[in-house]
Write a structure and sequence with these properties.
Family: Belongs to the Nudix hydrolase family. NudC subfamily.
Oligomer: single chain
Low-confidence stretches: 96-121
Catalytic activity: a 5'-end NAD(+)-phospho-ribonucleoside in mRNA + H2O = a 5'-end phospho-adenosine-phospho-ribonucleoside in mRNA + beta-nicotinamide D-ribonucleotide + 2 H(+)
Distance between the termini: 18 Å
Bound molecules: zinc ion
Number of helices: 6
Largest sheet: 6 strands, mixed
Keywords: Hydrolase, Magnesium, Metal-binding, NAD
GO molecular function, one term: metal ion binding
EC number: 3.6.1.22
């Protein structure tokens, strides 16, 4: 296949929402939206959103919320719909304390999936439940995915940035949830996005290089990935990560598509990378195994259950299937 992966093909990449950036700075916009019956609110907490059994993302009218909303700091303006209706998120107070000093909070490209995490300890009426975005992403509509991805990304940023990085004083929420302002020095702070590269490395025989990370469940294999370092280009990051993790050298690098990955703040930038060497030496730290697969080998391994491919909502899956030439399973 030669076509670029259309980002909208990836569930978590679907835009679907007018982000209404100009409305963020309107005084009282959220307060006014909360008086409108047409406004819709989703609930977000620590990577999870409230879903309704059998019908995807749960969206509530402002007077129908199943949890109390107190204070003004928990509202996020996600955007506006076709009829001008506002979409908001309410940040349900976190069940989990902020990461302690020295505790890794942002190393998630290769982190274990959060599938074993308990649901937020906030009771909901029957028929509603907390679902991690990772788990529900592939089942959402374009509209829902755009809302939920933005809400999870913003919620994670607020949770991790309660204090001013310049002076350590408290910050307050501004711009309808899109910035924080230091109460002491007035400095403004905005959500950050950390680019990560993710790549389908293919050799001269058209085999693909997949790896198994140290803390993944047995049998899980995926494309290589890693964060872009300070002062580095995307192309360089691709070549460096592949060399560091597997010893394989990479020549040509071509962009294939991207996907917001708010776990907690990444943007996955996807590439096809052409290997100029094939000897594999894993670093044993990030990756414990890496190997080349032909299409026939990968298909057989997936069929036999020896290889669990990346999740359906992930750009990793899209990159592998683009190379494979169709769905893996
Ligand atoms: Zn400050």
């Amino acid at each position: 296949m030669t076509g670029v992966i259309v980002p909208d093909d990836l569930p978590l990449s679907r835009a679907g929402v007018d982000r209404a950036a100009l409305s963020r700075t309107e005084d009282g916009f959220v307060d006014a939206a909360l008086t409108q019956d047409a406004t819709r609110v989703l609930l977000v907490c620590d990577g999870a959103v409230v879903t309704a059994a059998g019908s995807g993302l749960a969206l509530f009218g402002p007077t129908q919320l199943p949890v109390p909303t107190t204070g003004d700091d928990g509202w996020l303006l996600l955007g506006r719909g076709d009829e001008g209706e506002a979409y908001l998120a309410w940040r349900v107070p976190d069940r989990r304390p902020a990461p302690r000093v020295g505790e890794a909070s942002d190393v998630l490209v290769h982190a274990a999936p959060a599938e074993t995490e308990p649901a937020p300890a906030r009771s909901l009426p029957d028929g509603l439940g907390w679902t991690l975005l990772r788990d529900v992403g592939a089942d959402l509509t374009a509209h829902e995915a755009g809302l939920a991805t933005t809400a999870v990304a913003l919620d994670a940023w607020h949770a991790r940035h309660p204090r001013c990085p310049r002076c350590g004083a408290a910050t307050r929420v501004a711009q309808s949830g899109w910035s924080r302002i230091c109460v002491e020095d007035g400095s403004e702070h905005y959500p950050r996005t950390d680019p990560a590269v993710i790549m389908a490395v293919v050799d001269a025989d058209d085999r693909i290089l997949l790896g198994h990370a140290a803390h993944w469940a047995a049998g899980r294999w995926s494309t290589l990935a890693g964060f872009v370092e300070a002062g580095e280009s995307l192309e360089h990051a691709v070549r460096r990560e592949v060399a560091e993790e597997t010893g394989v050298l990479v020549g040509e690098v071509s962009y294939r598509g991207s996907q917001p990955w708010p776990f907690p703040a990444s943007l996955m930038v996807g590439f096809r990378a052409v290997a100029t060497s094939t000897d594999v030496t894993v670093d044993g730290v990030e990756l414990t195994e890496a190997r080349w697969f032909s299409r026939a080998e990968l298909a057989a391994a997936v069929r036999a259950g020896d290889v669990i491919p990346p999740g359906r909502a992930s750009i990793a899956r899209a990159l592998v299937e683009e190379w494979f030439g169709g769905p893996l399973s």
